[in-house]
Specification:
22 strands, Ubiquitin-like (UB roll), 16-stranded antiparallel sheet, Porin, single chain, alpha+beta
């Protein structure tokens, strides 16, 4: 009896151990997952088969209902869904065409950013006892879930030699028509304070057409030019996106700028530009972005142009100029023999250029030359790497004065990290970049004193871009593409540094969205 009891205890212990064995539990979990996956795949295959067999069935969308959207206006939804209902006018759709149009409709609703993704889609046939229905009628139900109307975020930012703390309040769908109010406040080491309010709304319930109005007040320290800039103003914008992916933006801006807080050793030019300045301008931005990833592209191209007119005609203010910029980027994947598909190696080339043309006259009827507020700055970890922030271009004493004409280019090759894989957002890069930043000068090296000399100085300064080598730097680094921003840690070596400019040999950290 004793041995029998002892044997039963051993069997019980083995059964108990077997029941809690992690390997057995893992195998059971794997078997369950495989079974669920098999059922899902069979269901998907069956659904695809049914859709293929019935793809040519005639369908008529009799009604569209949006469920669980209590804070969204009925009139707004009716206009947003009108393209789906209008497809039925004059013709009968097939089932495949109906599914395609419903998918376009859900994508349209997702663009308003007021519903959680994905939006559920259900079909039902109306009651056949209703004399107003036909055998081809389908009712479409969109099961939505509205996003939180209030979103509050706080945090800290670090990048481009600046640290800051911020708070952001987003109020979505204010009046039930996808209107948004965004309030932002930040305090930092360089941007001492910044307060911004932006109201945005779609026009005629179309996510591709939007109107925006905003106001800003900021105080920014600019150590590269021995001053602070206090900025207050407002703007209104109209943005639209055409069917080919081209984005346009027209803006009317009114800004009061004040150069203050001069350092004791500030240059004469900075002191002359100190004080108040009012700028009223109208601007146009055109963007064509065909890249697969805007943060770290591996294929595609990007083009952006900016044109701004200030201080002319009804645009009042004490500055007058025409400002143009162009930016392009091309990314090409590099195939590797023996590796099928994407190797993770890519080549990217970028180019930027800009011109600021003065238009106004001062009190002595001489051309009103550009102020430091409006000139271009070049150099730093996000454009021409291997140079200090605003390290290129004209300088006076300790100050970077900026320029009226610039051109910069870069060539980068990216490699996936060993043992990390091409699907991860980490890359090693090798780069070489170059740039020139110039002020408008006549052939004698003087500032223009008449309109004829302004035109002459523009031609001369453009020709001067080709005079000698530009400032050049090369290096290697580590890149991390976060969804919100791109991080670069580079070791840079200046190869060509023109007289008066400031190169930076060694490690350089860059954080931003747009890189050269």
């Amino acid at each position: 009896m004793v041995s029998s009891l002892h044997g039963e205890e051993e069997i019980f212990d083995r059964l108990q151990k077997h029941a809690v064995d992690p390997k057995v539990l893992e195998e059971r979990k794997k078997a369950v997952n495989e079974r669920i996956s098999g059922i899902y795949q069979k269901a998907q295959a069956r659904l695809a088969e049914l859709l293929e067999q019935n793809s040519t069935l005639p369908c008529t969308i009799s009604s569209v209902q949006v469920l669980n959207a209590p804070n969204t206006r009925r009139g707004f939804l009716e206009k947003a869904l009108q393209p789906l209902l209008s497809e039925n006018k004059g013709r009968t759709l097939t089932l495949s065409e109906t599914l395609e149009e419903v998918a376009k409709c859900t994508n349209r609703l997702n663009q308003f950013d007021i519903f959680e993704q994905p939006i559920g889609v259900y079909f039902d046939k109306p009651s056949q006892t209703d004399p107003s229905t036909t055998p081809t009628d389908l009712s479409v139900y969109l099961a939505t879930k509205e996003k939180s109307r209030l979103l509050l975020k706080t945090g800290t930012d670090l990048g481009n030699a600046e640290g800051s703390a911020y708070g952001n309040l987003l109020w979505r769908n204010i009046f039930g028509g996808a209107e948004n109010l965004n309030l932002n406040a930040s305090l930092g080491t360089r941007t001492r304070s910044s307060y911004q309010a932006v109201f945005e709304t779609p026009i005629l319930s179309d996510p591709n057409f939007r109107w925006e109005a905003g106001a800003v007040a900021s105080d920014t320290k600019k150590p590269w030019a021995s001053h602070e800039e206090v900025l207050k103003g407002a703007w209104t914008k109209f943005r639209w996106l055409n069917g080919r992916g081209h984005r346009h933006e027209i803006a009317l801006n009114g800004l009061w700028r004040q150069i203050t807080g001069l350092a004791p050793n500030a240059s004469t030019t900075v002191r002359e530009d100190a004080g108040d300045s009012v700028k009223t301008s109208i601007s146009h931005i055109w963007v064509n972005d065909r890249r697969d990833n805007p943060i770290l592209p591996t294929r595609g191209f990007y083009t952006r142009t900016l044109n701004e007119l200030a201080g002319c005609g009804p645009l009042k203010g004490d500055v007058a100029f025409w400002k143009s910029e162009v930016e392009t980027q091309t990314a090409i994947p590099v195939p590797v023999p023996g590796i099928e598909g994407d190797s993770g190696i890519s080549f990217t080339s970028s180019f930027r250029a800009g011109l600021l043309y003065p238009l106004g006259l001062d009190s002595d009827s001489k051309p009103q030359l550009s102020k430091i507020n409006d000139r271009f700055q070049l150099g730093g970890p996000t454009d021409v790497r291997g140079f200090r922030l605003s390290g290129l271009g004209p300088r006076e004493g300790p100050d970077a004065l900026g320029g009226d004409l610039y051109a910069a280019g870069s060539a980068n090759i990216f490699f996936p990290l060993p043992r990390v894989g091409a699907d991860k957002p980490f890359r090693l890069q090798a780069f070489i970049n170059a740039g020139r930043l110039l002020a408008l000068r006549t052939p004698t090296g003087q500032a223009p004193t008449s309109n004829a000399e302004v035109r002459e100085s523009v031609c001369h300064t453009i020709a001067e871009l080709q005079n000698g080598l530009p400032s050049v730097a090369a290096g290697v680094g580590l890149v991390y593409a976060h969804p919100a921003a791109r991080f670069e840690l580079n070791f840079s070596l200046p190869l060509v540094v023109r007289k008066g400019e400031e190169g930076r040999k060694g490690l350089q950290l860059g954080i931003g969205i747009s890189f050269l």
